[in-house]
Records
---
Amino acid sequence: MKNFSKLALMALFIVSGLFVVSCNDDDDDRVAEPASLYAKLGGTTLVSDPNNPSQMIEQGRLSYRSVVDSTITLIVADVLDGAEGNLGEHFAPILSEALSGNTTNVAILSKNLTDFFSANTGGGATNVYTGMNMVAAHDPAQNPRMGRKSNDANYDKFIGYVGAAAGLNGVTDPELIGEVVAVLESLRAPIVQE
Ligand code: HEM
């Protein structure tokens, strides 16, 4: 073989070698994607559902549902407390219904909030949010179940309850709480309408 064709062959091997290396790169050297908040809260690992032990639930979804339900309990206590600046007017439609024994819509709210947080923080296909968008859900003209528009102080109070509810459910890592608060803050503009 002439020197020239040997060189050409060598070059071909080197180039195709590089190509193979770069094709395989994905498996080895890919920069790891940051874990989603859903994953950090337990992700898709299936566990027995404490509310219904014959069923399984993803741990990420269970974490959100537990925090949501504790938040609802704290809001009910806030409303019943009747103190100045409470969230009574906002939640009046749903609470008067629940207090008279009809808890169907509280259960729907719990499911919708759980779907909303799970679907928006990396939960997979098992978590689909089908409720209203955040502007419509918090505008009494579009959602009569929202008793009154909320302002910044109401919103701060709501975030405080979510933080307290997270603590009650063992979510205490400050970094994780910081991520949850960041998600909540990103929704302030569409929700605060007064
Ligand atoms: C991070 C903050 C918040 C998020 C992510 C959020 C999310 C949601 C979602 C997903 C729904 C369900 C909508 C539907 O069923 O179609 C909802 C409903 C509602 N939200 Fe919020 N919300 C937040 C803050 C607030 C605040 C600050 C208030 C009042 C002070 C409030 C009061 C309500 C009320 C009264 C409803 C209607 C409940 C019902 O239909 O039964 N929310 N919210």
Note: Residues 1-31 form one domain.
---
Amino acid sequence: MNGVQEWLKRLFLQDRRAVAKLISLVEDNIERHQIMRAVLPRTGNTLVTGITGPPGAGKSSLVEALTKLVREQGESVGIVAVDPTSPLTGGAILGDRIRMQSHATDRNVFIRSMGTRGHLGGMAKATADVIRIMEAGGYTTLLLETVGVGQSEIEIMHLADTVIVTLNPGTGDGIQAIKAGIMEIADIFVINKADLPGSERLKNDIEMMLGMTGQDKAWRPPVVLTSVYENRGVDQLQAEIKRHHAFLRSSGRWKIKWQEQLQREVWRHLNGQIQEQFNSLWPKLLSDAAIAEGTDPGQIAEQVWSVMMEEMKKKND
Ligand SMILES: Nc1nc2c(ncn2[C@@H]2O[C@H](COP(=O)(O)OP(=O)(O)OP(=O)(O)O)[C@@H](O)[C@H]2O)c(=O)[nH]1
Ligand SMILES: [Mg+2]
């Protein structure tokens, strides 16, 4: 039995070290196929809860508060914190590590921080793998935190089944969120720091905007007020998460979501493969003067595509 087999065996016995080890191997692209093939049959049952929002909105504080609740209920928690602006990877992003200290010694909480490694598609790919390994390792609650409200965060949030958008009162967050197109991805809105003034107003603003946009009639995103400082609203947030999970399952949305996620994920892999092949072919195409000057790039793309197909056929023969 090779080393990977041994680690997989230990993963299925819910050995924390195996979770860490297999995540590193997959991230380094060592035996990725073998690992993911073994892991996959043990995944797909747990819904992933994503938490996004502007920097400092209290995402990590909420993750920690939710983790505390879930642990009290006896479930184990896997947390992935993605920071597209951070070059760090593997280890913990310092701030998160400090804040999550209360769970650091808890064997039933597994925290993984990820920074940019290569391009963004790479990060979404890696995050999807990490979530699956955690699920196969027996973590029954999966939380995914990502900072920001830009395109890259939305890409990460598509990995989640339930998306929580966290905003703060008195910051103009509401307006920013609309501009960033984040209203559309929110299943639940949280107004955190509700101990500060202006939260009712922000709640009204969000509800008004929800009324105006062509929302999904079957699910109207609730707006939950929380204060991690005053330990308020977190249980209500957990109840709304459970309600959304139940909605996904009972309405059959879960399946549709799963198909959409699969499509995105396959495309990310395909995109990576095509890009790699294209990058290796391009210099040769240029130097062979196969491409005449002044040719329309769209036409060149068609030529390149047929060359790529030929290469692929040669490889498969
Ligand atoms: N007043 C108040 N402050 C809070 C509350 N929750 C969190 N904070 C504070 O807000 C700051 C940011 O909290 P984090 O949980 O790190 O926020 P975050 O969204 O994870 O931050 P990034 O990951 O850096 O984007 C910290 O100083 C927290 O102590 C709250 O309910 N009320
Ligand atoms: Mg954070």
Note: Residues 89-95 have pLDDT under 50 and may be disordered.
---
Amino acid sequence: MDIYGDKRSGNCYKLQLAAGLLGIEYDWHDVDILKGESRSADFLALNPAGEIPLVVLDDGRRLSESNAIINYFAEGTPLAPIDAYHRATIQQWQFWEQYNHEPRIAVARFIKLYQGLPEARRAEFDALQKPGHRALNLMDQRLLNQPWLAGDQLSMADISLYAYTHVAGDGGFDLSPYAGINAWLARITEQPGYVALEAG
Ligand SMILES: N[C@@H](CCC(=O)N[C@@H](CS)C(=O)NCC(=O)O)C(=O)O
């Protein structure tokens, strides 16, 4: 399969990490979002949403949305539980990630890492810190008591949340107070097939 993405993006890294853990091979195609490549006519023909990551399967079918893609990767493997309630708890964390975590942590990281914290976005950056820490605190409360976010084993919920949590420092978030999160981050790096984010 072909993956279109940006090596600094946490949403794209979710695919690299899931593929590593599952032993899935792919060809990687860099898309430079700062140069507008995700909005080019050629790319919009592949994904009308104009966003990465995007997967083109060997039969030509396409899939976007990072969490939908990694759930597709996991289908039929031990990382996708059969039990309906367990699957729903994984999705519960993934929907929460997209609405409450990524819009704070990833956006603050984008402003600081990609854009160099321009003065014009300073107030927005500062305003993201409090809700970002609220999201981190919620994860920490869970992870102080349980090794994994959903159920009692590693799941795609962990991959989805690991992506931007482990680089939250790039967005100005100090992770040192979060003992539960730090132990969980270490557990994930110990998984067979773990791959690190290549570019930060
Ligand atoms: N909900 C989407 C978000 C994807 C997203 O925000 N992609 C960003 C890069 S991380 C992007 O393509 N930005 C370029 C643009 O919007 O033009 C997902 O989880 O895949």
Note: The chain has a mean pLDDT of 97.
---
Amino acid sequence: MAAERINLNQRVAALKNLPEVMKLVWHAAPWIVTASLLLRLLVAVTPLGVLWVSKNIIDAVVRNVKTPGSVHAGQIWFLLLLEFLFAAGALVLGRAIDYCDARLADEFGRDVSLRLMRHAANLDLMLFEDPEFYDKLERARLQATDRVSLLNAMGSLFQQLIGLTALAGSVLYYEPWLFVLLLGCVLPAFAGESHFAFLGYSLAHRMTPVRRELDYLRTLGTSRDSAKEVKMFGLADYLHGRYEALSRHLIRNNCKLTRRRLRWGALLAAVGSLGYYGGYAYLVLQTLELKISVGKLTFLAGAIAGSNASLQSLFSLFSSISEQALFLTDLIAFFAVRPRIRSKPNAIPAPRPIRRGIEFCDVLFHYPGSENLVLRGLDFRMEPGEKIALVGENGEGKTTFVKLLARLYDPTGGKILLDGVDLRDYRVEDLRKEIGVIFQDFFRYDFAVRDNIGTGRVELVNDDSALWEAARKSGVDQLVANLPNGLEQMLGRRFEGGVDLSGGQWQRMALARAYLRDAQVLILDEPTAALDAVAEAEVFANFAQLTRERMAILISHRFSTVRLANRIVVLNGGRITEDGRHDALIASRGQYARLFEIQAANYR
Ligand SMILES: Nc1ncnc2c1ncn2[C@@H]1O[C@H](COP(=O)(O)OP(=O)(O)OP(=O)(O)O)[C@@H](O)[C@H]1O
Ligand SMILES: [Mg+2]
């Protein structure tokens, strides 16, 4: 019982979304919405017109049968033509409405998808690591493209409402209680429909994680990235088995509900028809007793049938809308999520040039949803123009350090200063412009070379000389020159004609992005991990020169190159434990010396 009450509340709450939804629809294409509503208004009143004309025709014919010659042939012809015009007009308008609906669905999909992308881009990175948020995003994404039926339903609802008012008005005018009878018979169907609509939604909601897992399994089974391992480990059967079991579970649940819905729906629809035939029988009796004319009988029978159909579809439209509105709860909830990391109202622009450098003051950090402190009171200073090599074992927090500096996350405790001002006081977009990062899991865009480098600074995406310059700096120019289509060469395997690169070549592509960027702080998180020894030596030899006047942080596990840096900083146990030149650190016999020795020993 308690569950029932919550259901009802949720359903009612979902209807509160409707104004919001209508705003979304209107925003997508105001003109199409207007046109569609006008057309529907016209179509809605045609049934009444048709009925009215045919009533006149029948009455005229009956009169003529009683007293031949009492009706002009011209009069009949005129009425017939009028009825034809009504009927044909409705058909033509119906096509026009279909056209509007199709256009509206396209525009709605486009508009909502764009808003989704824009909104998602502004949200905090940490949200994307939260599975629950991911489910919400996934549902919202589906809703963006899959709510065509909602648009149709809202349009039809409007149309049926007008049509019903017209028809029911006439039924009410002649036989008020007939109308009440109809209403009473249709209400149970409505209650049933909306009940099942709700059950359907809550099932779909519960099944979202299952559906996501299915998607994932399907990708694993069919994607290029996983193909190698799937073959080598012979995982195909294992993956198929999991997919099979999960999808059966999903289908079983759906079937159970559909069957119940079918049984109840059929029963309640039968009750609804009973109302119509009761009314019809009454009218026939009235006509036999000569209380109403034959024309009026057809008119009222038609109007009742029409009202009945309208009412039924009105209720089912209404429950379908409330069902869809329930689904849209997630879309609206998604749009309601606000990023926590964003510019304050009176944020200041990032300094240019940077005069005092960067400072970490007693920075504490743990990832949301984890108790484990990654940074434990980290202190660090860096002057303008300085270049630093940051080292530390796997999982010590080097990448985390960079994420904090780029303000992808905010520290749990302590603060990070740029030129003496807390990062949180700067405009976020501005700050990120000044901090260029190539992450160790940098992205490989399945775009042309031009875009792969140009994403480093989109204003320059059409500036060939700048792109070539960046390619030269990262040592990828030869490769690009040798590609069949040069800068226009599509990379990756997703699109036709794409060329895949080696890990190291992709990395140089990412490096070119970093060099294209006009940031004052350049951070490369293991930029050379996939490069061969010669290429790495080259990158390092150029690095200091290429980052002249900039601040640069380089994260690397290769001590043969790290040792060349002027300042080496060791991250250990959530703090900076060592800081200095190679020789000094070796002499102090700390963590750095130990790690260096281990690597050096392997080469002897
Ligand atoms: N998104 C995340 N959510 C929760 N914990 C995370 C997340 N990313 C990293 N961690 C944890 O934070 C710690 C530091 O990770 P980080 O990636 O900063 O290490 P790293 O020094 O860059 O390591 P590597 O040398 O392997 O790149 C690790 O213990 C890791 O498990
Ligand atoms: Mg890392």
Note: The beta strands are 358-366, 373-382, 387-391, 413-418, 421-422, 435-438, 521-525, 551-555, 567-572, 575-580.
